[in-house]
Design brief:
The protein contains nine helices and eight strands. With 216 residues, the protein is α/β, with parallel strands linked by helices. It binds BIS(adenosine)-5'-pentaphosphate (AP5).
């Protein structure tokens, strides 16, 4: 069974690939960013607290994220496995995950930083299902409208230049140390993510096929 982590900087393509591969592989797609944005939109106490961190491009405190992640992992659709997109992002989150549901493989999305700002500022996401698009590299069939459900596309508030700079800095400080953490556990698969969407998907599938998880 696959319990995969997609690890990489903001804009590396984690959400794009998780959306496609979860559907293809029959896995649940667990995005802590999407769960937090849903809490913000619903105006729950957690959402109100998380909102100010997210707008600034900072990480939401571990205690809040761990609560929603643990609840989500306990839902029935995760029984056949899952892809974690955007979690863990700190070493305490990674150690907590080992207690909740240990990962079988970690895909590292490797891409030059210069590509990321361009991808993020051109991104639009479906306001209903969260499917990501890109105005230059992956536009919707009809401008401003999601291909999957016809809902309007939105521009995320943290995809503005200042929060993007903060998110990149936070990634290198807090999340990049997880690359060594998972390499040391023999779980890390490095994938060159600086390629068209289809090619990156093929590379991920090939990397997983080369290092199957049977017996884990
Ligand atoms: P989150 O929603 O997780 O955002 P992120 O990690 O910053 O990642 P992104 O969604 O920005 O990028 P992505 O890698 O998914 O790229 P995408 O596929 O969309 O987190 C947001 C915030 O929530 C955080 O800042 C934090 O505040 C909070 N948070 C979430 N999880 C947390 C946690 N665990 N702990 C604490 N706080 C947490 O692609 C980007 C663009 O590029 C799109 O336009 C896409 O169409 C395009 N694209 C994708 N692939 C390609 C390709 N191969 N070629 C060309 N274009 C491509």
């Amino acid at each position: 069974m696959h319990r995969l982590i997609f690890l990489g900087p903001p804009g590396a393509g984690k959400g794009t690939q998780a959306t496609i591969l979860a559907r293809e592989m029959g896995l649940a797609h667990l995005s802590t960013g999407d769960l937090l944005r849903a809490a913000v939109a619903a105006g729950t106490p957690l959402g109100v607290e998380a909102d100010r961190y997210m707008r600034a491009g900072q990480l939401v405190p571990d205690r809040l994220v761990l609560g929603i992640l643990e609840e989500r992992v306990g839902e029935t659709d995760t029984a056949a496995g899952f892809i974690l997109d955007g979690f863990p992002r700190t070493v305490p989150q990674a150690t907590a995950l080992e207690r909740i549901a240990p990962a079988t493989r970690v895909i590292s999305f490797e891409i030059p930083e210069s590509r990321l700002v361009e991808r993020l500022t051109q991104r639009r996401v479906c306001s209903t299902c969260g499917t990501p698009y890109n105005l230059s590299t992956n536009p919707p069939a009809r401008p401003g409208v999601c291909d999957r459900d016809g809902a309007p596309l939105a521009h995320r508030s943290d995809d503005q230049p200042e929060p993007v700079r903060t998110r990149l800095k936070v990634y290198w400080e807090k999340t990049a140390p997880l690359l060594d953490y998972y390499a040391g556990r023999g779980l890390l698969l490095r994938v060159d993510a600086d390629a068209p969407v289809d090619a990156v998907g093929r590379r991920i599938r090939a990397a997983l096929a080369e290092r199957p998880t049977e017996g884990l």
